């Protein structure tokens, strides 16, 4: 039985975020980062969170990860309140977060080592995960020897190594170039297809969110609230060809419209009032893509 | 620049044509491992992929042995070595010329022994028990003081760096004691400790302690927070986090502290030996001065220099062995 199969048999996590509010700072420095947000991720579901930058996406993910305590409300994993980080939630960060002093394989083994898993078991698990990521031949390299895309792939399988209930990803491909990013999305759907783990995925890339997700939450500009919830009816497994279908295009249009309003709202009030055309820019529904 | 120079010498089969590092999609689907990418950095330390290439299977012959020797002798290293020789020769030349012509213009070379006299002294004294025992005693004192300093300063530094409260508790003391040079501790140390030996080791310890402590604290502070968060997410508890993330992450700065601390430890040791000592290289040098034995003074000084150099060399070597990843770090050692 492969790691993926073993994992897929285990229970998958159910994330339930209820009426979360987060306020940073005090008095005149007070920043309301998130206001009254309720979201959920069903067991085995891939859910994206999309919204203009600064709207509180990372804050929300940090609450589920256990780094930040909400000012209001609570986040639950399988009915239990989340209070601190733990290996039941795998996290992939936007910044590269591999330990530079460990070899690629030791990085993947890290979580298992912390859990006291014996060396042979660690080795076989890490090897099969690296094989899954197509990076087995790099097991003895150091992270600094690898490209950005490779590092993120290792980050993903490292987070999967401890068989977490859910996978939390904060713009994991944000630092990659467009070509690499497209390939990484395909790899991620492939891995997800095998693990069927619940995923909360943060992005500001519309196509990315549609290609990967079962469901998408659109957030408003700060203070972040949920503006819309969109189901993605595209069949699984997803293939690159699907991005050319009319269904996909329609979803892109729909999301672009929603996001455009919020991106404008996130900017200075003058821009909001006049609209971008007031600055001599031609903004059709497609042109908003240039904003990112 | 040095990477390029080295890459020319190391024989690594670099496939023609660009390898696209992201050409992995098929491999994820079929689960066949990707071909190793041509080593991005120098190949010397890229272990697995090179060994996997069949044509590199080594056959032990004079040629391969010679080649493996030669691959370490790069142009870059030859140049560094030559420049090092020039720099030391220049020092000797000034000394030689100054003593030969008895240079005297404000600085007086009149009583300075010639290199030949010092060399003579070495061949006589150097074989004597007294000189070697003095060296052994100094080295023992240095190592004792230095290792006690490591044992206290590194854990304390990690705690101070990590916990605000520990910092609040210890830093006021540290800030007051730190500006006091180790030499100023000599009288107090003699009063404080039951014997001379303990007093000297203590002064050596004081010298090494603060550089190691402060660099360790700095190491913790400059550790990328995302690594600590990653460690937590992967299930590390507080103790595991210290051992597996914070310590290795601070190690480069700790080693900077060790190198600086070793230097200060020698300064402190020699001063202590000169003032209060029996035995030791510092005592040897001071005794030579009171006996007006000029060549011995010079020999003592050179001995101190060489011992200090050897100690920092050992620290650097241990650092390279313990932190092999630094060879690839951006803006790192090379
Ligand atoms: N630790 C913090 N202290 C104060 N303000 C913060 C902190 N973290 C985030 N914020 C603020 O909260 C808002 C939301 O941030 P974030 O969740 O990172 O947004 P996003 O990930 O959507 O770009 C931002 O305006 C940011 O400046
Ligand atoms: Mg963010």
UniProtKB/TrEMBL annotation, chain A:
Q: Which Gene3D superfamilies match?
A: P-loop containing nucleotide triphosphate hydrolases
**Ranges for domain ABC transporter:** 17-246
Q: Which domain of life is it from?
A: Bacteria
Keywords of the record: ATP-binding, Nucleotide-binding, Transport
TM segment ranges: none
Is the keyword Glycoprotein in the record? no
**One family name in Pfam for this protein:** ABC_tran
Annotated InterPro entries: AAA+_ATPase, ABC_transporter-like_ATP-bd, ABC_transporter-like_CS, ABC_transporter_ATP-bind, P-loop_NTPase
Gene Ontology MF, one:
ATP binding
Q: What is this protein's function?
A: Involved in beta-(1-->2)glucan export. Transmembrane domains (TMD) form a pore in the inner membrane and the ATP-binding domain (NBD) is responsible for energy generation.
Q: Which family does it belong to?
A: Belongs to the ABC transporter superfamily.
This chain's protein is named Sulfonate ABC transporter ATP-binding protein
**Which organism encodes this protein?**
Bradyrhizobium jicamae
């Amino acid at each position: 039985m492969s790691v993926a199969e073993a994992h897929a048999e285990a229970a998958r996590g159910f994330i339930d975020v209820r009426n979360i509010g987060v306020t940073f700072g005090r008095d005149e420095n007070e920043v309301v980062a998130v206001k009254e947000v309720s979201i959920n991720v069903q067991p085995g579901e891939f859910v994206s969170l999309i919204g203009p930058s600064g709207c509180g996406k990372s804050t929300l993910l940090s609450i589920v990860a256990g780094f930040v305590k909400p000012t209001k409300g609570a986040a639950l994993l399988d009915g239990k309140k989340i209070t601190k980080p733990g290996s039941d939630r795998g996290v992939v960060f936007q910044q590269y977060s591999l330990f530079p002093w460990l070899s690629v394989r030791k990085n993947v083994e890290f979580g298992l080592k912390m859990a006291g898993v014996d060396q042979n078991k660690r080795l076989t698990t890490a090897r099969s995960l690296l094989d899954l990521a197509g990076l087995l031949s790099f097991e003895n390299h150091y992270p600094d020897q690898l490209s950005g895309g490779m590092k993120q792939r290792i980050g993903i399988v490292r987070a999967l190594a401890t068989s977490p209930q859910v996978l939390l990803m904060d713009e994991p491909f944000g630092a990659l170039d467009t070509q690499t990013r497209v390939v990484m999305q395909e790899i991620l759907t492939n891995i997800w297809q095998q693990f069927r783990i619940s995923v909360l995925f943060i992005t500001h890339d519309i196509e990315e969110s549609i290609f990967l997700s079962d469901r998408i939450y659109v957030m408003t500009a700060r203070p972040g609230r949920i503006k819309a919830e969109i189901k993605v009816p595209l069949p699984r497994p997803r293939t690159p060809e699907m991005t050319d279908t009319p269904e996909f295009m329609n979803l892109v249009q729909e999301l672009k419209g929603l996001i455009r309003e919020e991106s404008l709202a996130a900017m200075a009030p003058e821009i909001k009032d006049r609209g971008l055309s007031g600055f001599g820019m031609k903004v059709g529904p497609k042109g908003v893509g240039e904003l990112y | 620049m040095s990477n390029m120079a080295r890459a020319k010498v190391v024989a690594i089969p670099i496939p023609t044509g660009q390898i696209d590092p992201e050409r992995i999609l098929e491999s994820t689907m079929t689960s066949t491992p990707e071909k190793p990418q041509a080593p991005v950095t120098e190949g010397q330390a890229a272990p697995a992929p090179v060994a996997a290439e069949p044509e590199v299977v080594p056959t032990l012959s004079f040629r391969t042995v010679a080649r493996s020797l030669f691959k370490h002798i790069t142009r870059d290293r030859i140049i560094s070595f030559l420049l090092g020789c020039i720099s030391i020769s220049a020092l000797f030349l000034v000394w030689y010329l100054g003593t030969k012509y008895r240079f005297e213009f404000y600085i007086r070379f009149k009583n300075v022994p010639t290199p030949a006299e010092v060399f003579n002294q070495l061949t006589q004294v150097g074989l004597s028990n007294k000189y070697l025992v003095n060296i052994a005693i100094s080295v023992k004192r240095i190592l004792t003081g230095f290792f006690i300093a490591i044992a206290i300063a590194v854990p304390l530094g990690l705690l101070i760096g990590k916990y605000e409260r520990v910092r609040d508790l210890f830093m006021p003391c540290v800030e007051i004691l730190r500006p006091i040079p180790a030499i100023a501790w000599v009288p107090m140390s003699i009063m404080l400790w039951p014997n001379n030996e303990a007093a000297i080791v203590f002064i050596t310890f004081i010298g090494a302690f603060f550089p190691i402590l402060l660099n360790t604290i700095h190491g913790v502070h400059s550790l990328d927070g995302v690594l600590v968060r990653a460690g937590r997410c992967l299930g590390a508890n507080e103790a595991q986090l210290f051992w597996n993330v914070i310590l290795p992450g601070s190690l480069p700065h700790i080693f900077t502290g060790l190198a600086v601390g070793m230097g200060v430890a020698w300064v402190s040791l020699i001063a202590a030996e000169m003032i209060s000592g029996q035995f030791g290289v510092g005592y040897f040098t001071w005794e030579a001065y009171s006996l007006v034995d000029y060549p011995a003074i010079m020999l003592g000084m050179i001995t101190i220099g060489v011992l200090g150099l050897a100690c920092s060399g050992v620290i650097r070597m241990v650092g390279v062995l313990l932190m092999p990843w630094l060879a690839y770090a951006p803006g790192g050692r090379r």
